[in-house]
Predict the structure.
Amino acid sequence: MTSYRYIGRRVPRIDARDKVTGRTVYSTDRYSENMLRARVLRSSLPHAKIIRLDVSRARELPGVEAVLTHEDIPGHNGFGIVTPNWPVLCVDRVRYRGDALALVAARDEETAEEALSLIEVEYEPLPIIETPEEALREDAPLIHEGGNIQHSMDIPPKGDVEKGLAESDIVIEETYSTQFMEHAYLETEGGVAIYDEEEGVITVWCGDQYAFRDQLQIARSLDWDPLKIRVIGSPTGGAFGGKDEISVQIHLALLAYYTKKPVRLHWSREESIVAGPKRHAMKTTFRIGMGNDGKLKAIDVKVVANTGAYDTIAGPVLNLSLESSPGPYKYPQSRFRGISVYTNNAMGGEFRGFGAAQVVFGLEQELDKLAERLGMDPIEFRLLNAVEEGDISALGHRLQTSVGIKETLEAARKTDLWRDREKIKRDLNAAARYKKFGVGVASEWHAVGLGVGLPDFSNIIVEIHEGGEIILRTGAIEIGQGNLTAYAQMLAEALGCDIEKIKVIHGDTFESPDSGTVTASRSILINGNAILDAVKTLQPKLIEIAADKFGIPGDELEYSDGRVSFRSDPDRTLTLAELADHAGSSGVPIKVTGTAVFATSDKDFGDGLPHNYYTYITQIALVGVDTGTGEVEVLKVISLPEMGKAINVDGVEGQCEGAVVMGQGYTLYENVVVEKGEFKTTGFATYILPTALDVPEQETVIVEKFEKSGPFGAKGVGEAPTVPVTPAIVNAIYDAVRVRFKKLPITPEAVLEKMRDLAGTEER
Amino acid sequence: MEEITVQFMLNGKAVRVETPPAFTLLRLLRERLGLTGTKPGCERGECGACTVLLDGEPVNSCLILAPQVEGREVLTIEGLADGDKLNPIQEAFIEKSAVQCGYCIPGMIMSATALLDTNPEPSRDEIKTAISGNLCRCTGYTKIIRAIEVAAERIRKR
Ligand code: FES
Ligand code: FES
């Protein structure tokens, strides 16, 4: 075992001190003297033609500096990560309640608000399509000219699934449905923009996930040179996938351009819920066949996604649903089909888990049912079918990177909670007779990286300045997960220097290089590899500088632990500070770049499918169900992730703990309720998040494996722990009260109803 | 609208500031006094990100109108450290990795401060109750609760 100074340890975050003192400046914390306040006029109908849009009265209001409509957009009136069909400002049609029609900038909030009320809009209502079923009807009105199917995917089948099912001893079939989920980052979408007329530069500060893509999207709509648009996207007050797409950026840039004054736009909580993207609502149908020996034989999956009004990144989300749907198990025959359908409901988009949470909720219940049919232990059953490195996956590609699903299951089996579960449940029940207790388990594989065929790269820069300060420049955004600290750890370890010497400049299109987006659990692996690449270039360079200083050939010197020393006399050394001073005095600062590109799978099904790296994870949940009220209490969750090597143990635990509670919310409370296109949940009084009083005790058991192509053996862990926690809780509820759920969230009413139904059948 | 003047104690110092009478304390702090450590997360009293102490009591500053603080004492996140020396709660939050995106953290720390000021030996349940009005979407609260426990121990030992 290599022993490391920073890697694999508990390292305090480099940004924590500023965060606990309130000194961190988020983009929504920026104010200045003459800063205008902006507001967006949103559609008051979910689906309608715009007959008339009159902003003249608003423009006349004293204190109003600009009122903009689609006519004021110099470039493309649309944005979207994949297909830019989401209007910046609507022209003649609105397709959901969050659609933007006009922008106002005024001297203060109150004036901006008043100006909004002076804008006159006349609509002609159109029929409201709430669900894919309605959208797919022959006579359904078309939400977009090309039809109501946004995307469809049919992965080339593996073998003959019908034959596989026919030859199975046991075949089960079930359909599961899931709700729209809100990201609910504590910092809602917002930021500030300034137009520097002299330089021709528009600067936008906006907490995001990928400043360089925002830069291009802004440039496209303003018809502006992207190099004259500066986006500063870091730090972000929470993102979870919801800030990868454009929110305020283009609106801010437009207003700054027209007013030539600093402008501030910060969405209200209600606006964030109504206008921003959500986790897609989906319906998933499984048909799974198994032999009497417990071996899975065939899986047939169909997914229908409710994607809302526009594309953003819905295609890839659906694709990942399909890729995630078989789980990390072997099936000789398989088929995966899905469609994503436009509606006038909430906007579906990117959300931590990226299509996986919806399908794994169903799959892992199906597997529990199959295990039960054979009287097998659920962990044994999963172990029997789990994949290993080198295996062919359910999709047909070879698993050529580390596969730790079996190790996570083995480790799960050894936990006290699993081993002693019957006794634990009995003891709990003895103390609370009106409750029933259950333990459930579930697993997942979660793709890491964007996938084959997509631009999955990173660039970073390392500089050493006089005095020995080391600067790491990365376009990566700190969205809260602690990636900056992990980068600093990796650089300090590779250079053999103190982490305190490292300063990270991040997420700024003018001050840092393009490191790709912070999404898809990708940023540790790809930026780590880019850092190691930079260090590889840096070391010979440092030796060269030392050789110049000492006036001897480079091969008489060597680099280790932050210094260059004589091979013949290890006590004669030059430190990084001395090397930088020497380089500085000769006018050549020390600066190197590092790059990395994701290795891809041996198959290519198009649109990023399939992936080459996966996080593997098993989670166990202990729940108590109040048989009188139907309330479910999650008492304990153990997460056992395999993400290669853990770079920061606290970071991995933190990701798991936060993800588990997010998954708990998804399972039990959270639901963006939209009826006839109108949002019924508009804040945290109606959209219920778990509080400190609701959360389980948590334990994280890191199951390490070494991934040879990852930095220090690491992959990524940001998303996986929010996925199987849902079926683990649901399986635990079943263990407690013998009822299963095909729909989320599982409210106390739903539990009571199912229990009543069960009692009814038992009596009969 | 006509602005009014309010005077109060802010982080131990007397301040006098002009404000529109309809401004909330949250907006006054952020937009007039430059103290942006106090965060807006909902501006409807539903998230706790804007928590400050008013005469020692934790309040949602988005629900307090600026004129209401006249003559009273307001403590914000910026008032906790003594120069470069952090208070034990801040230290414990760093040490126990209780911080992720950080946006909820000032409000969390203010609620924890109010708790430990009045109850130096809180049970885990009392800690959970004290921060139950502070939503955090990143951490799952586990490390935050642990950090408050550690801070409480340290304060008691002093
Ligand atoms: S901003 Fe005050 S409680 Fe949310
Ligand atoms: S740390 Fe992000 S909301 Fe709490």
About this structure: The CA atoms of residues 330 and 589 of chain A lie 54 Å apart.
